[in-house]
Amino acid sequence: MTAYENAMAHARQTEALAQIAGRLGWDQQTVMPRGANAQRSEEMAALEDVLHARRTDPRLGDWLDAAQAPDEAGAACLRELRRAYARNAKVPARLASELARITPLAQDAWEAARHNEDVASFLPWLQKMITLRREEGQAIANGGDPYDALMEDYEPGTGSDAIATIFDRMRPRLVALREAILGADTPPALTGHFPQDAQLRLSRRMAEHFGYDFTRGRIDLAVHPFSSGSGDDVRITTRVAVDDPFNCLYSTLHEVGHAAYEQGVDRAYALSPIGQGVSMGVHESQSRIYENQLGRSRAFTGWVFGAMQQEFGALSVPDEDAFYAAVNRVTTGFIRTEADEVQYNLHIMLRFDLERALIRENLDATDLQEAWNTRFLADFGYAVDRPSHGILQDVHWSVGLFGYFPTYALGNIYAGCLFKAMQADIPDLQQGLATGDAQAATTWLRDRLQRHGALRPPVDTITHACGFAPDEGPLLEYLEGKFGALYRL
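Structure tokens predicted for Metal-dependent carboxypeptidase (489 residues):
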């Protein structure tokens, strides 16, 4: 075997083991008995020991030094493998194992603290996770910015200074739009009782309409919705509130976007270094365009209105226009995942600034709740009323995902660019969505972006799909146009 063939065979087995680790994480958050958490912690640590040893195997380094790519896909595989090898070689095996061991325990502590509104019980676990991630970031950065080093895991090639500059450009227009909307009349909300079984039945229909392949996936319930897996086993979760069906329906659609990306990658790339989404920002572009530009459009919500009447009978809003307005209401609120399109990125900006300060050691975990509450009041104009609406609402920090949050906003930016290009290429897009048929949109996304996996770096992936380099302009224009019309601004 050539050096290239040896490297690829090694990578394939490593990725298969990583998928098993991911399945254990899915199990923990869906069906694992609560009493198994301590044992699962040890299982995850043991598996991480094996994975870290494979990812830092000196033989892999030798193969990568000698390997010659046979084609474009092979060159991309070597690019991704070399980047990962250089990163992993800087992380001590002890640290990788300890992170894997503590993560299930910290997540379990977060779930209990969130349920009990008890920040104090979670803080020791949060501090442990921050300490470990700081150490990891410092090891990878090798004297550079540890937060940027962690961000590289989720959005390669995009530093935090660049993100901060983009956010500084976006914030004034988002705040101005929000203030104008909140000064206008607010449309009525959808009210009523919506049984869980009917919500899940409708969410499954919506997933099917957006191309989710249930022969290679499934929907389960979780505290925090997520997507897991790649290739032929891609699972999603959702959550249900019987007084708020949009929580379930649009959480499902959001996760379908993630899952469709993974299911759509060319099967020739399966279990290879390019056989999954290239970055979390690009991944988020798929979930956000499925959920918002497509799922919350006037055309598709017209279909949802009829489908909900079939499931729940007469609704509290009288017609499709009122339903569209209810789906897209801009109101005060605390929860990022339930935020409207206008205010969503403001929630991300808050988290980005706080977590960067934590990793850079400019903020201590013991001061995080006060910092969060102070910043939220300044940004949104009203006070956090309880921890589950503030510092405890997101799972991310409990599992150490520092550097992940900014990719949500970047994904919105990418989605804005993709939607602009999609509309130009599919003149009858809205007619199909009005019948509940999203195939034209999902086929366009699969052909332009999803099937390529990690063939190209993140920005190049979006540029190739859109035909132009991404920036925040299309997203802001979309938001101002949509909500300006809705609120008659």
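The longest strand covers residues 233-238.
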